[in-house]
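Archive maintenance. Older records in this collection stored only the sequence; we are now back-filling the structure field for every entry so that each record is complete. The fields below show one back-filled record exactly as it appears after the update. Entries are processed alphabetically, and Abi (CAAX) family protease is next in the queue.

ARCHIVE ENTRY
Title: Abi (CAAX) family protease
Organism field: Alkalibacillus flavidus
Length field: 101
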Amino acid sequence: MIILVTIFVVSIVFYLYFKVRILNYKNPLYMEYTNGKARIALGLFISTFGINAYGFYQTQFALFICIIFLALGIAQLTHGYKVFKHYREEIIKLQDAGELD
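Back-filled structure field:
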């Protein structure tokens, strides 16, 4: 159970870090790239929160909430990974072409 709490706390810290980090960028490409990383952290946060809630209460209602949180968390995680992967490749292409600093 301590592992879930650790992942829970670390993922929310990373989510907040990436969301604040977006404010430092002027280039929308870097902003979307960082937002993809933030979505991955948010998905992990939501998923571990749902699992932890079920582990604490262990009722049928908590299981229902856990399933909903897992579905939302996995959706955020996969969408964030797709965004992260897409913009990473775009940044690499532009850096190789010398158009991006």
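Update note: The chain has a mean pLDDT of 94. The chain is about 90% helix and 0% strand.
Entry marked complete.
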